[in-house]
């Protein structure tokens, strides 16, 4: 993907949310100078772009342009994913809880969902070593992002996912069982075992990343080895609903919660009664405050961690601050008067000024002799071309007030076996997104730190090893040999670390890490090679745990093996492919997988959008043994991005669709509506033609076509600062044949700016569903929440609209639906209408006006629906629980 100018903004949204990507790299461009694959971009190129982007965004800026690398794309992806659910205003707390209750009270269809991705997903599958794959990088079996870990004795391990709930293993990892399906939030912010063995869960992921959801509070299981979470296990009242929880800490008979709305505490013994707000730096911005509706409210009270003095539980230090910087950032403790005050000095090497305190993680040794901390610096984030990491620190007094001594910075970590050695992309470049820290209970100087990679010190920070490098590309041990997982290198972990725990199984201690690829473990007394890389990582993503975060799904006949081939684009795990005879899924494209096109007649004809319309295509499922490394003519996947990719005039996850009547005609949406008619035989981005120009500052949010008629929705501006949306209608040939075209035969639909009752609201337009029998009959899915929850201008009401005159007029058909963001829609073969929402799927039978809930999924977002080539099976791409199927005949 090209280095291009992108818009980057601080998040001014209700759900502070981003998407990280394991970036693919082209041959010969790997860090360290060795020739290695794969894909769209190189870390060296990313580093160059990051150097160019530094300084473009100051900590308190609202909007600036910058040339983006992966870290910048995470932030931008955050903005774009969340603005679909929040614009044109700030959403009030409780919206998702009310929607879940409404969905639970709906009548349900017959039938049940079946998970088709509940089997291992091997990111190193040797069948798929084509140019755009990450296979052989060394991550092995993967699943979706794990944000928190907890582990006890005798093999009990607990893994909390970004959007797929909490999972338990009784065998030291593997053979997982979900234990949170009855909750209204499946997004995990924190997991912790207390001294009595109870498991505490803080819902709402707090990584400020793009596809996270707000939580519904804190829950506790008194018997986590056998029990499951339920609404009855919630601690306190609704004080923490619609927050994110970064950490849960214990001390002085209390449980402390660092949340997106301040620091709260509750008795850890008596679980009833309300939570107490201990500290909020800007209380006027909290719900009910005088500035609660201000666009900046969601990041005015962010807190990251709590450190409690082991010798004096009354002495507490709070780490408070927004990762991009604000005046309130800093460390706070209680003064002599009982109020919280900022610590202005005396911490030693640990900074106390607002510019250098951002996202912070604490860890305490079991014997109380050491406290450790990771600090991400807003100033570093915005001025340092290499890293946002301020440093890793130790307090040898064991007190959180220090004095603190720095024991690592990004340069030291880069020199200790890291894969991130390229200028502009070094350890801690995403320190605001990737952080964990823990201390070996048996050794106060044995510490694990997680950033993009996993680091270990056995001497209290005197020396470090990169035991879990970003990937193995670039190391001398690596090769693309299809007979091996990752050449002669040992397996590593997936990149982007979030959670860590130490537990035991059969008398042996293990460290468990959670990251964007799932859960991995190694012995605490593990081994390393001469480079300091661990030789004994094991992936625990055995297929019994499915938290895969799909953006899309594609289905086509498998001509080689029978049945169908199922593919889908994933957050940070590329594109998965499941052939007709597979027992293990493979990965044929790397990076973030966006939209997917699959030829219904041949499931090996497929296209995947990376991000920003970076479209890749293959006609053999991208099956390749890697021989293209020495013979470029053997490449079988191709980059065919339309021009809006190069100019950055497309959304992070941009719309891509095939004409319902002609699978060789594709439509892609950025600033322009692009059409190409060569189908899967396309080999160049020059084969796209612009048929319509929305205009500067506008980008497509949805496209659909049938028989040459095209519907395209756009937004611009797309956030709550002047949000606007629209619909354009035209045809695939309605243009003069110029690349910059505008063309003829297109018109803008008149939509009231106010979103008056019964009209299309002024919210994000997320999907079209065209009646296959009549291209003038079309449905529209609308994201976000209605004016009951947002006071943004023109938010209106309704989530599903119908037009019978080609989009000229629209009718609200949402009566009976919960007020929940709608993500896409599909007309089934029998003429019914299925709608994917952030909390499941709903259905309206042909000729009916009442809606039903389709089966019973957990509280997980469904982003896309497709049907099998014969129309008999509905496929749902969930963003946190994999791909599910449902028999269309049961939709009644």
Structure description:
Helices cover 6% and strands 33% of the residues. The two termini are 45 Å apart. The relative contact order is 0.13. Strand 19 and strand 20 form a beta hairpin. The protein is mainly beta and 892 residues long. It is built from 6 helices and 59 strands. Strands 4-36-35-34-33 form a 5-stranded mixed beta sheet, with no helix packed on it. It has a 4-stranded antiparallel beta sheet with strand order 3-59-58-57, with no helix packed on it.
Quick gist of this model?
With 892 residues, this protein is mainly beta. Helix content is 6%, strand content 33%.
Strand order of the largest sheet: 4-36-35-34-33
Cα-based radius of gyration, to the nearest Å: 26 Å
What is the molecular shape? Answer: globular
Q: How would a crystallographer describe the biggest sheet?
A: 5 strands, mixed
β-sheet strand percentage = 25-35%
Tally of DSSP β-strands: 59
Count of alpha and pi helical runs: 6
């Amino acid at each position: 993907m090209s280095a291009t100018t992108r818009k980057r903004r601080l998040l001014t949204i209700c759900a502070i949310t981003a998407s990280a990507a394991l970036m693919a790299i082209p041959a010969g461009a790997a860090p360290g100078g060795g020739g290695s694959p794969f894909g769209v971009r190189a870390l060296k190129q990313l580093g160059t772009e990051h150097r160019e982007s530094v300084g473009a965004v100051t900590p308190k800026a609202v909007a600036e342009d910058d040339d983006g690398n992966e870290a910048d794309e995470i932030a931008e992806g955050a903005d774009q994913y969340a603005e679909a659910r929040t614009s044109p205003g700030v959403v009030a707390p409780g919206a998702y809880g009310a929607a879940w209750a409404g969905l639970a009270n709906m009548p349900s269809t017959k039938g049940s969902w079946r998970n088709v991705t509940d089997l291992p997903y091997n990111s190193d599958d040797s069948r798929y070593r084509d140019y755009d794959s990450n296979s052989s990088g060394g991550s092995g079996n993967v699943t979706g992002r794990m944000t928190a870990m907890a582990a006890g004795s005798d093999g009990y391990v607990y893994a909390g996912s970004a959007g797929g709930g909490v999972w338990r293993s009784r065998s030291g990892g593997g053979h997982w069982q979900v234990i949170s399906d009855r909750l209204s939030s499946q997004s995990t912010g924190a997991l912790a075992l207390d001294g009595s063995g109870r498991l505490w869960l803080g819902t709402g992921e707090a990584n400020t990343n793009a596809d996270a959801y707000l939580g519904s509070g804190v829950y506790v299981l008194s018997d986590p080895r056998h029990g499951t979470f339920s609404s009855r296990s919630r601690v306190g009242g609704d004080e923490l609903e619609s927050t994110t929880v970064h950490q849960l800490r214990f001390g002085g008979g209390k449980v402390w919660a660092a949340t997106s709305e301040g620091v709260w505490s509750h008795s850890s013994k008596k679980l009833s009664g309300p939570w107490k707000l201990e500290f909020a730096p800007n209380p006027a911005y909290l719900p009910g405050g005088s500035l609660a509706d201000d666009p900046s409210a969601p990041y005015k009270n962010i807190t990251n961690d709590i450190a409690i003095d082991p010798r004096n539980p009354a002495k507490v230090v709070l780490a408070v601050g927004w990762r991009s910087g604000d005046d309130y950032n800093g460390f706070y403790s209680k003064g002599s008067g009982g109020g919280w005050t900022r610590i202005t000095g005396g911490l030693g090497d640990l900074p106390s000024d607002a510019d250098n305190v951002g996202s912070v993680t604490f860890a305490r040794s079991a014997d109380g002799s050491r406290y450790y901390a990771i600090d991400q610096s807003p100033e570093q984030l915005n001025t340092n071309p290499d890293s946002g990491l301020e440093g890793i620190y130790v307090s040898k007094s064991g007190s959180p007030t220090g004095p603190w001594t720095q024991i690592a910075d990004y340069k030291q970590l880069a020199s200790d076996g890291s894969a991130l050695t390229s200028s502009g992309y070094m350890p801690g470049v995403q320190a605001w997104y990737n952080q964990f820290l823990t201390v070996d209970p048996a050794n106060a100087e044995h510490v694990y730190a997680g950033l993009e990679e996993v680091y270990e010190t056995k001497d209290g920070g005197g020396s470090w090893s990169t035991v879990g490098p970003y990937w193995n590309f670039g190391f001398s041990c690596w090769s693309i040999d299809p007979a091996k997982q990752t050449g002669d290198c040992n397996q590593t972990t997936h990149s982007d670390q979030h959670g860590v725990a130490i537990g035991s199984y059969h008398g042996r201690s293990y460290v468990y890490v959670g990251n964007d690829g799932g859960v991995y473990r190694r012995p605490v007394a593990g081994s390393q090679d001469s480079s300091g890389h661990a030789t004994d990582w094991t992936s625990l993503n055995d297929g019994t745990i499915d938290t895969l975060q799909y953006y899309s799904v594609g289905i086509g006949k498998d001509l080689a093996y029978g049945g169908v081939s199922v593919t889908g684009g994933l957050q940070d795990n590329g594109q998965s492919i499941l052939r007709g005879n597979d027992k293990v899924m493979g990965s044929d494209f790397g990076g973030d997988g966006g939209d997917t096109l699959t030829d219904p007649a041949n499931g090996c004809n497929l296209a995947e959008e990376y991000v920003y319309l970076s479209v890749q295509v293959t006609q053999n499922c991208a099956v390749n043994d890697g021989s293209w490394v020495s013979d470029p003519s053997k490449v079988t996947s191709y980059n065919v991005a339309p021009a809006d990719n190069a100019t950055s005039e497309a959304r992070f996850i941009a719309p891509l669709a095939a004409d319902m009547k002609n699978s060789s005609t594709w439509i892609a949406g950025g600033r322009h509506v692009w059409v190409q008619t060569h189908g899967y035989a396309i080999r160049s981005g020059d084969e796209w033609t612009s048929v319509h120009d929305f205009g500067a500052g506008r980008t497509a949010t949805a496209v659909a076509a049938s028989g040459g008629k095209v519907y395209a929705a756009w937004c611009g501006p797309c956030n709550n600062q002047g949000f606007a949306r629209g619909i354009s209608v035209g045809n695939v040939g309605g243009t003069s044949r110029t690349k910059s075209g505008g063309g003829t035969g297109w018109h803008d639909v008149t939509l009231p700016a106010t979103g008056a009752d019964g009209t299309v609201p002024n919210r994000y337009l997320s999907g079209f569903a065209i009646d296959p029998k009549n291209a003038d009959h079309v449905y529209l899915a609308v994201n976000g929440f209605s004016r009951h929850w947002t006071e943004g201008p023109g938010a209106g009401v309704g989530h599903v609209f119908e037009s019978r005159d080609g989009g000229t007029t629209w009718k609200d058909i949402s009566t009976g639906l919960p007020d929940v963001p709608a993500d896409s829609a599909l007309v089934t073969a029998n003429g019914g209408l299925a709608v994917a929402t952030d909390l499941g799927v709903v259905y309206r039978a042909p000729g009916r006006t009442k809606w039903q809930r389709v089966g019973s999924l957990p509280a997980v977002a469904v982003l896309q629906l497709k049907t099998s080539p014969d129309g008999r099976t509905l496929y749902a791409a969930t963003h946190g629980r994999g791909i599910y199927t449902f028999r269309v005949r049961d939709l009644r």
